[in-house]
């Protein structure tokens, strides 16, 4: 029997809406994952600290504030610094197509656009996450 | 160790080296090993056992939403400000439908987490019989061995396994609120017996003092070997009364240490652990789910009574052991 995947769901930056993130968190739970919800207004540092402490397989970030090109690469860089490159890193929110592809070139496994079905996110995680411990 | 240096043993050596060097990532992976019943997790726990026993452990339990995480956050900051290092384990239920879990305690531990050096681990109970106690108590052992001076364990006080985890601490705090029902309900849930200390939280809401009085009356009736638990009012959200809770915990520890009760509790904790591991080991060796299911279904279909079927199954398992030359 394989263990459940552990997924951190977090919201970097200053936007005040976490309904979308909570819906995604609940849908991943319903697909058998253990979801660590970290709440609003996280700094990249706090997100990476939490990921390390919780030994997660996946980090899913939701960002609506427009500061994604600044904050998301910072998360990626901090993960590399801590030796956490094995963590599957995904993001979603209001991110223009070209910037989404740019982030995918810079270490994000997938950047989901607005209106993505939550089931697609769960599918993507199931197919791409690696259980390392 | 006599085993050859296989990939598995070197993975253990690597993990231990990083753990001993104080790497948080190694602590996190060690807890995962224990949670996932990694084949080497027993060897890992054996290796760190000499370093276990230096931390103070506080269990915090109570009904859902009582403010346990908010209180734990306050305690962590209180002890952090006093220069003590703090590690927390928060257990939430696994969904029986999907096997997944939504672990949200970190959100309420925000203020403590902004202090550097506080470690928080969220665990799902994974719905297993006794497995939670094994994993959560072992996680506390790992935090202890890693060097945290204060270890806090939060569990929701519904279900025996959850309550057992908090009760396996050195000191057990039960958090209630005026809205969580009266003391009779706390008693029915099995919370009265495990408490070394009661916190009536949300004392900013009506009924807190009445609940406090009621609890004190109830405790006055009980004739117990252990010292009588204090009952404190608290407003964890506003940070009112948290320092008093911390001081009451420290008083209780000191008293239990002086009386020898602490030593006895720690011995009981080890004993309970051995017992659970033996039961689990026997289960793994002897319980072949599918075979037993099928044999039981056949017998029941023949009109045999459930108790009779169970007796026969036990006998046939024991006969199986004897045929194989007795227990290993
Ligand atoms: N009015 C009031 N609300 C409080 C107080 N302490 C905590 N709360 C609130 O109670 C709610 C639950 O708090 P938590 O700390 O998450 O409670 P918990 O017992 O850990 O909850 P679970 O882990 O979900 O069982 C939150 O909305 C808190 O802000 C308090 O002293 N007064
Ligand atoms: Mg909680």
Q: Helix and strand layout, with pairings?
A:
The complex is a heterodimer of chains A (133) and B (328).
Chain A: E1 6-10, H1 19-30, E2 34-37, H2 44-54, E3 58-63, H3 68-81, E4 88-93, H4 97-105, E5 110-112, H5 118-128
Parallel strand pairs in A: 1-2, 1-3, 3-4, 4-5
Helix pairs in contact in A: 1-5, 2-3
Chain B: H1 7-20, H2 24-35, H3 41-48, E1 56-62, H4 68-81, E2 86-92, E3 101-103, H5 105-108, H6 110-113, E4 119-124, H7 131-146, E5 150-156, H8 160-167, E6 171-176, H9 183-188, H10 191-194, E7 197-200, H11 208-221, E8 230-233, H12 242-259, H13 261-286, H14 289-301, H15 306-323
Parallel strand pairs in B: 1-5, 1-6, 2-4, 2-5, 6-7, 7-8
The structure holds guanosine-5'-triphosphate and magnesium ion.
Magnesium ion (MG) binds at residues 68-69, 90, 105, 108, 154 of chain B.
Tags for this model:
heterodimer; A: 133 residues; alpha/beta; Rossmann fold; 5 helices; 5 strands; B: 328 residues; 3 domains; 7-stranded parallel beta sheet; 8 strands; 55% helix; 13% strand; binds guanosine-5'-triphosphate; binds magnesium ion
């Amino acid at each position: 029997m394989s263990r459940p995947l552990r997924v951190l769901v977090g919201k970097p930056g200053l936007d005040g809406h976490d309904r979308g993130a909570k819906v995604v968190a609940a849908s991943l739970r319903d697909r058998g994952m253990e979801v660590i919800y970290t709440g609003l207004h996280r700094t990249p540092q706090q997100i990476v600290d939490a990921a390390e402490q919780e030994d997660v397989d996946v980090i899913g970030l939701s960002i609506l504030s427009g500061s994604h090109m600044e904050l998301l690469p910072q998360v990626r860089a901090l993960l590399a610094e801590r030796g956490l490159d094995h963590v599957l890193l995904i993001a979603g929110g209001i991110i223009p197509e070209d910037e989404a592809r740019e982030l995918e070139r810079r270490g994000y496994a997938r950047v989901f656009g607005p209106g993505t079905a939550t089931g697609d996110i769960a599918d993507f995680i199931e197919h791409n996450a690696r259980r390392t411990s | 160790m006599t085993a050859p240096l296989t990939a598995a043993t070197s993975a253990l050596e690597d993990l231990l080296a990083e753990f001993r060097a104080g790497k948080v990532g190694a602590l996190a992976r060690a807890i995962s090993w224990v949670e996932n019943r990694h084949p080497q997790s027993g060897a890992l726990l054996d290796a760190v056992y000499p370093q276990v026993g230096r931390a103070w452990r506080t269990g915090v339990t109570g009904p859902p939403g009582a403010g346990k995480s908010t209180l734990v956050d306050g305690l962590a900051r209180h002890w952090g400000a006093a220069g003590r290092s703090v590690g927390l384990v928060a257990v939430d239920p696994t969904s029986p439908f999907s096997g997944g879990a939504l672990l949200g305690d970190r959100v309420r531990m925000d203020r403590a987490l902004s202090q550097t050096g506080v470690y928080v681990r969220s665990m799902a109970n994974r719905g297993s019989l006794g497995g939670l106690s094994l994993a959560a108590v072992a996680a506390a052992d790992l935090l202890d061995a890693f060097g945290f001076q204060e270890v806090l364990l939060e569990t929701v006080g519904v279900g025996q396994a959850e309550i057992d985890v908090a009760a396996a601490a050195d000191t057990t705090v039960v958090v209630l609120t005026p809205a969580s029902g009266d003391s009779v309900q706390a008693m029915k849930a099995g919370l009265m017996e495990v408490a070394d200390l009661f916190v009536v939280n949300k004392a900013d809401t009506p009924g807190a003092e009445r609940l406090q009085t009621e609890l004190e009356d109830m405790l006055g009736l009980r004739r117990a070997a252990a010292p009588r638990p204090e009952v404190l009012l608290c407003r964890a959200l506003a940070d009112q009364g948290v320092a008093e809770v911390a001081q009451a915990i420290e008083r209780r520890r000191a008293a239990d240490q002086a009386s020898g009760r602490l030593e006895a509790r720690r011995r009981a904790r080890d004993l309970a652990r051995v017992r659970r591991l033996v039961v689990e080991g026997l289960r793994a060796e002897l319980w072949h789910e599918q075979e037993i299911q099928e044999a039981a279904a056949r017998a029941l279909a023949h009109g045999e009574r459930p108790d009779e079927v169970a007796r026969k199954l036990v006998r046939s398992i024991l006969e199986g052991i004897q045929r194989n030359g007795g227990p290993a």
